[in-house]
Each structure stands twice: as C-alpha cells, then as structure tokens.
Design brief:
heterodimer; A: 257 residues; mainly alpha; MetI-like fold; 0% strand; B: 250 residues; alpha/beta; Rossmann fold; six-stranded mixed beta sheet; four-stranded antiparallel beta sheet; 37% helix; 25% strand; globular; binds adenosine-5'-diphosphate; binds magnesium ion
Chain lengths: 257, 250
C-alpha cells in the first residue's frame, strides 16, 4: 500500500513538472501571451490574485457539501442494512434516483427549479452545497453500507451479549470500526467533490472556474488562463491527496489495527 | 462437588429451530437448575451453538418454550433485553471490540446498558480483570494480547454485566494448546463460585471435573443426558459411545 502510494506520488510529481515545463517552453513562442498572468507585472499579478481568490469558495463549497453528504449518506445507508424489506427499498430507490441525475442537471434544477417548487429563495452558495451534497450522498451511502457490512457479525453478537441497544451498538462498536475502514474512500470522494464544485460556476458561484471564465471574457487569453486553472486544481488536489494519505498512514500505524 | 439447587433457572421445552427448510433443533428439552453446570458436546453441526444461541436470543426459535430467569423468550415480540434475562455469552472467536482497550471493552456494557458511572464501571472492570488474572493488561488493545488472554478478557466482559447464567460456545477451540488451560482454570473457578453455566466444549477433562450434567447432541437432538460418571462410564446410545471413543483417543 505504502509503496504503491510512493510510486503514484512520484509519478504525479513528474507529471506536474512536465506540464509546467511544457507551458513555460511554449511561452517562448509568439502565440502565447503569458503577460496576463505574469506575477512580475502589475496587471498580471492582480489577474493572478483574482484567479486564486476563487480557491476560497471552491474549498468552502466542497468541504461544506461533503460534511452534509456524509451525514445524509449515513442516514440513507442505515435503512439499507435493515432486515426490513421496505426500509431497504427506501435506500435503493434513493440511491438509484440520485445516482441517475447528472450533477450539472441537479445544480440547475436546485437553483432554478427548487425555489419555485418549494416557494423558497436560495442563494448560489447553498444551491451549490445542496446539489453537490445530494448528488454525493448516494455514493456516500454506498460507501457506508459496504463499510458497515464488512464488520464481522460477531461484533453485533458481542454487543447484544452486553445488552447494548441498536443505537449504542452502531455508535460505539460498529461505526468507529467502519469509519476507519472507509476513510480512504471518503478521501476519494472529497477529491471528487473538489473537482465537481467547478460545475457550480454555471449558476454564478465565484469559485475557481467561474473566476477563470470571467477573466477570459475580459482579457481574451483563454489558453493561458485555463492553463493556470488546470494548475490550480492540480495543486489543490495534490495537497488534499497528500493529506488524505498522511491520515491513512497514521491510521495504519495505529496499534489497534 | 456441591449439590446443585433444584429450582430451574432455564427451561427449554420442546424447542424446534429451522434455518429455511433445514431443522437445526428437533424438539429439544432441557432444564438447568440454579447453580448447575451443564456441559454440551456432540459432533460439529449437531446444533450445540444453535441451542445456546436461542437461550441468549441470538437466534429465534420457531416452536416450543424457552424460559430464562422466569422470563419467557417470546420471539414474536421485541427481543427481551439479555441483561434483564441475566445471560452472559462467551464466543469461540472472543469477539472483543478491537478499537477499544481492554478496560473500555469491559466498561462499555455497564456504562451504557446499566447506566453505571465511569468510575464505578472502572472499579467493577478492574475487579473482574483481577479475577481472570490480567489486571495489568487493562490499557492494552485486544490485538496486543495472546488468544488465551483475549478469551479471559471476553469472560470478564460478560461478568461485568453480572449475569446469573453464563453460556460458553467452545471457548477454547480457537486457542493454541498451551493457552487452553488458563481459560479452563478461569471457567472452573467460576463454576466453583456457584455460577449457573452451560458450556459447549470438547474438553472432557474439564467436563469430568466441573459438570453436574452432561448432554450429548447429534443431528439437532439431545441423544444422551446423564451425570458425568454415568455418561463417561456407561453411555446408553451407540452414537454417544462412538463419539466419546473418538474424542477420548486424543
Ligand atoms: N445462520 C445459519 N443459517 C443456516 N444454517 C445454519 C445457520 N447456523 C447454523 N446452521 C446449521 O445448523 C446446524 C447446526 O449448527 P450449529 O448449531 O452451529 O452446530 P454446532 O455448534 O453443533 O457445530 C448446522 O448444520 C449448520 O450448518
Ligand atoms: Mg458450534
């Protein structure tokens, strides 16, 4: 596992350096206009600031959405584990329907459709959070279900033998073990969420992608600006991946496992 | 060996249990008196586990009556809380909680199900850890202990619920030979303290020393039930004779 990570990390690093090199070298040719994002120039620097400002909402949006989707995912996973057929059906129907809707469509529907249906007003940020969380919750539910099902049934029997209720069994015995096992998968979902948050730009959320689009409109330098955008996402996601792996390693070092 | 009291604390009357179309228990009847030690043996798949799992409500029986501690286990209703039924269970695979320390394994039940304070639960747990002779392991995680130590922790965990009846399902079958005795010693001590016990085990030396009643099961039925002296010297059924011959050869 650890070896695998190191190899992947090394490859990623090579890819980043390679990409940066290609961009720099091609900057020598006349068709490129790096001045729009040249940090040594005043306008370039302010353009860069403008682009990087989007990071705040990209992160805030993704992290808020994943917190909600984890909670909803767990609440949807639990009936899926029941012996009761109707409860299991609730889980299946939710997962199948939500999984079938493209994220972009869900974002549009929540922002333009939901306010009319529910007679509420919703701002861009919360529409984005709601759509992303809803979409992700179906995947979280499946992750939780698999994680909980991987716990030995002897753990339930031992809990029963010391008279724990269902809630206490879940809270103190099953979930603490299941969550440790699914953390890598949850980390993946966070990375996925960071990428999917770019779609919320279509309803005007001032995150990374929207900022880049706006700058392209005023500067008309799509190649350079979108290249910076690529690097922004790459840097962000590599950082998050490294954090997730660090956390995983700490869990592996834990003497309990 | 002290004489067993006569009031039955477990009554199993004509109990049948099915897994789908397969009948795992066939009209089984067994009474256990307060303080009595019953040892159940029989070939693999004969229904020994199923029988004691019905008593602690890990399985539901389809017909017949089971009364434990004066409470009828009516499987059409909600599970009777096993603490109120006063039954402790020790498993072949220990089933300790791997993410909790030994001490936390022991205090979880008392704190959540018996509403004890943390300090009281701790004192109780330490008392039982001393009784199974591993108080010094309280801060470790199950993985860090040997199999024999883990099983003793599991016994202590059950005892912390202060049950009136202890059920053991092949508690030494998953252990290396050199660790079997430390677990059997703890069980013998528990027996001599007057605990009502049903032990599924093939440790016949232990059975001879401790049992008030021997039960032999085969094919979901109780084939033979007798005092140890008679059971070992002159078993009535052929199946039981053959089984004992096989197992005592080792
Ligand atoms: N959950 C189950 N589902 C289906 N069959 C089972 C289940 N548990 C036990 N059985 C069957 O019931 C019979 C008795 O099992 P068990 O009580 O575990 O036997 P023993 O403990 O004597 O080895 C076996 O044939 C076994 O295959
Ligand atoms: Mg068994």
């Amino acid at each position: 596992m650890r070896r695998y990570c190191n190899i992947r990390e090394a490859e990623m690093r090579k890819a980043v350096v390679g990409l940066a090199l290609v961009l720099l070298l091609s900057g020598c040719s006349a068709t490129w206009g790096w001045y729009v994002v040249d940090p040594t120039k005043t306008t370039g620097m302010s353009n860069l600031r403008f682009l990087i400002d989007g990071l705040y909402y990209t992160i805030l949006l993704s992290v808020t959405a994943i917190l909600f989707s984890v909670v909803v995912g767990l609440l949807i996973a639990l009936p899926g584990l029941s012996e009761n057929r109707k409860l299991r059906a609730v889980n299946r129907i939710y997962v199948e329907i939500i999984r079938a809707i493209p994220i972009l469509v869900l974002i549009l529907w929540v922002y333009y459709g939901l306010p009319q249906v529910a007679n509420i007003s919703i701002n861009v940020f919360w529409a984005g959070v709601l759509a992303l969380a809803l979409s992700d919750s179906a995947f979280e539910a499946e992750i939780f279900r698999a994680g909980i099902q991987s716990i030995d049934k002897g753990q339930y029997e031992a809990s029963h033998s010391v008279s724990l209720t269902y809630t206490d069994t879940m809270r103190f015995v099953i979930l603490p073990q299941a969550i440790r096992r699914i953390l890598p998968a949850l980390g993946n979902q966070l990375v996925y969420m960071l990428k999917m948050s770019s779609l919320v730009s279509v309803i005007g959320m001032q995150e990374l992608t929207r900022k880049a689009n706006e700058l392209v409109v005023s500067e008309y330098r799509p190649l350079e600006i979108y290249s910076v955008l690529v690097l922004e996402y790459l840097a962000l996601i590599l950082c998050v991946s490294a954090m997730v792996r660090w956390f995983e390693r700490r869990l592996q070092a834990d003497e309990r496992y | 060996m002290q004489p067993a009291a006569t009031r039955p604390i477990i009554i199993i009357d004509n109990v049948s249990k099915y897994f789908g179309a397969f009948q795992a228990l066939k009209d089984v009847s067994l009474e256990v008196s307060l303080g009595e030690r019953v040892v159940v043996c029989g070939p693999s798949g004969s229904g020994k586990s199923t029988l004691i799992r019905c008593v602690c409500q890990l399985e539901r029986h389809e017909s017949g009556t089971i009364i434990v501690n004066g409470v009828e286990l009516d499987n059409t209703k909600k599970r009777v809380n096993s603490a109120s039924a006063g039954v402790g269970m020790v498993f072949q695979q220990f089933n300790l909680f791997p993410h909790l320390t030994v001490l936390e394994n022991l205090t979880l039940g008392p704190m959540r199900a018996r509403q004890m304070s943390k300090a009281d639960a701790r004192d109780l747990a330490m008392r039982y850890l001393e009784r199974v002779r591993i108080p010094e392991q309280a801060g470790k995680y199950p993985r860090q202990l040997s199999g024999g130590q883990q099983q003793r922790v599991a016994i202590a965990r059950s005892l912390c619920m202060e049950p009136r009846i202890m059920l053991f399902d092949e508690p030494t079958s998953a252990l290396d030979p050199e660790m079997i005795n430390e677990v059997l010693e703890v069980m013998s001590e528990l027996a001599s303290s007057g605990m009502t016990m049903i032990c599924v085990t093939h440790e016949m030396g232990f059975a001879r020393r401790v049992a008030d009643k021997m039960v032999f099961m085969d094919n979901g039925e109780i084939v033979e039930m007798a005092e140890p002296a008679k059971f070992f010297e002159a078993p009535e059924s052929k199946r039981c004779q053959e089984f004992l011959e096989k197992i005592l050869q080792h």
